[in-house]
Amino acid sequence: MDDSILNVQQAVDFLGISEKTLIKLLREEHIPARKIGREWRFNKTALLDWLAGGDSLNYINRSDFYRVSADEEGKTTELLKDVCTKIELLKKENNLRGLLKLEKNIDIPQDATLRVSYKQQRDVEKLEFKIFWPMRDEYRNLERGSGMDTDDQGALK
Q: Other C-beta atoms within 10 Å of 150: how many?
């Protein structure tokens, strides 16, 4: 086979990614490739051009705003006590302003969903507790300067 044409395993090695990541890229990123029968083929030059044409800002959803007050490290028992303290604050205030030091009040609605998940992601194991609810119209278009930590392009600082 010509050195400039790669199969899946060669493309994985060339890009330095897992096969799972390559399959995800094939589904979601418009990576240059051809499917011949049941096999994918990649051109090295096309892959390099695709990489060179990428821009990390394209991967930031500019309509998403995030605010993390701080990552805290410590013994698990102390961290769990801190979580309980923060939950008590949320129960008392029913608002994210004090917890995340926001300029704007963001009330927590009465109806929401709790998701508890465990993930192994890259070099980290994560236990996550997420409370979420449908986007409400009054919060849909938070403008810059709303107390969220974003730069002038809407990206996280």
A: 19
User: What predicted TM-score, i.e. pTM, was given to this entire model?
Assistant: 0.49
Q: Which 8-state DSSP code applies to residue 134?
A: P
Tokens 């979580």, residue?
83
* CA separation, residue 138 to residues 53, 63, 141 (Å): 37, 14, 7
Instruction: Say how far apart CA 54 and CA 11 lie, in whole Å.
Output: 17
Backbone Cα Rg of the chain: 22
Instruction: Give per-residue pLDDT as tens, 71-108.
Output: 889 999 999 999 999 999 999 999 888 888 888 888 89
User: Cβ contacts of residue 133 below 8 Å, gap of 6+?
Assistant: 108, 109, 111, 112, 113
User: Which residues have a Cβ under 8 Å from the Cβ of 24 and sit 6 or more positions away?
Assistant: none
45 CA to centre of own chain: 29
